[in-house]
């Protein structure tokens, strides 16, 4: 087990629970339905990739470069993909003029997710 990966996954898991609860209870009256769906999509993908990180920790004993790459892809994918969705969902209450910058960040985070899964595939394929 890799302590760094488990600590990262634990942090993202706790934050996902808090953000999910905040979205369901705190934001419900502040943002519209479509924005709440965007928020929830960010929480969902954060959870999916938190579980992926936990799974990566079981491969970490092999000292495989592909696992490290997958770790960074999943970690920064969560930050960019889910983080940008949280910002986009709350733009009506934050009044920040960053949507032209944040819009392209979301697909970059999604691409990192895909690359992370591809790295995991090759790490498993390479494993004896």
TrEMBL record:
GO cellular component: plasma membrane
Family matches, as Pfam families: DUF423 (PF04241)
Keyword Membrane: yes
Keyword terms, alphabetized: Membrane, Transmembrane, Transmembrane helix
Membrane topology: Multi-pass membrane protein
InterPro entries recorded: DUF423
Compartments where located: Membrane
Chain ranges passing through the membrane: 45-62, 69-89, 101-125
PANTHER family: TRANSMEMBRANE PROTEIN 256
Record-stated family: Belongs to the UPF0382 family.
Descriptive protein name: Uncharacterized membrane protein YgdD, TMEM256/DUF423 family
């Amino acid at each position: 087990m890799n302590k760094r990966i488990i600590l990262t996954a634990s942090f993202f898991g706790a934050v996902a629970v808090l953000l999910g609860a905040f979205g369901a209870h705190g934001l419900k009256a502040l943002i519209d339905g479509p924005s709440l769906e965007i928020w929830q999509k960010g929480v969902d993908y954060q959870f999916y990739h938190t579980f992926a990180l936990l799974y990566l920790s079981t491969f970490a004993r092999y000292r495989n470069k592909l696992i490290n790459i997958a770790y960074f892809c999943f970690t920064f994918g969560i930050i960019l993909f889910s983080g940008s969705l949280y910002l986009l969902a709350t733009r009506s209450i934050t009044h920040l003029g960053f949507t032209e910058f944040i819009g392209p960040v979301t697909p970059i985070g999604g691409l990192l997710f895909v690359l992370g899964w591809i790295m995991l595939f090759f790490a498993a394929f390479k494993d004896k």
